[in-house]
């Protein structure tokens, strides 16, 4: 995952070039999307009954990269099928700012009672 949102790009540039203080992210949250969120966070976030962004944590960054250090599991799908195409990282459990986003390696169709999960170490943020 290495696509930064417009929000994060501006915060990074202002911090490094304009001596601005960037807001600290206390807890990052993984989100799932049924369409590309794009850099402006305009995509469609999943919203099945019980869906919620999931908190996540990362290893200490080295060589421009950081990886999740625990498994992440979303609630089971309730209702009709959902196609997940992208994931993103937000700075809040609801609303907030999109930080990073990327497409899944392949889209995943989730049916009722399916659970989407990511193993520890399976999501990496890399600065290119």
Task: Give a written overview of the molecule.
This protein is mainly beta and 128 residues long. Helix content is 9%, strand content 32%. It has a 5-stranded antiparallel β-sheet with strand order 1-7-6-2-3. A two-stranded antiparallel sheet has the order 4-9. A hairpin with a 7-residue loop joins strand 6 (82-90) and strand 7 (98-110). It is globular. The N and C termini lie close together (10 Å). The mean pLDDT is 94.
In short:
The protein is mostly beta strands and 128 residues long. Helices cover 9% and strands 32% of the residues. A hairpin with a 7-residue loop joins β6 and β7 (98-110).
Give the SSE string.
Answer: EHEEEEEEEE
- Note the beta-strand portion: 25-35%
Describe the sheet with the most strands. Answer: 5 strands, antiparallel
Mean pLDDT: 94
Query: Spatial order of the strands in the main sheet?
Result: 1-7-6-2-3
Q: How many DSSP H or I helices?
A: 1
Decide which structural class fits the backbone: mainly beta
Give the number of domains.
1
Radius of gyration (Å): 15 Å
How far the N terminus sits from the C terminus, by CA atoms, comes to 10 Å
């Amino acid at each position: 995952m290495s696509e930064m949102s417009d929000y994060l790009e501006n915060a990074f540039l202002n911090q490094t070039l304009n001596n601005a203080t960037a807001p600290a992210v206390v807890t990052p949250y993984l989100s799932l999307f049924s369409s590309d969120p794009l850099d402006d966070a305009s995509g469609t976030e999943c919203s099945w009954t019980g869906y919620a962004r999931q908190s996540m944590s990362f290893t200490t960054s080295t060589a421009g990269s950081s990886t999740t250090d625990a498994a992440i599991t979303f609630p089971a799908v309730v209702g009709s099928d959902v196609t997940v195409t992208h994931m993103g990282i937000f700075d809040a459990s609801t609303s907030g700012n999109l930080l990073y986003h990327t497409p899944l390696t392949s889209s995943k169709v989730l049916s009722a009672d399916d659970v989407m999960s990511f193993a520890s170490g399976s999501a990496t943020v890399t600065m290119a």
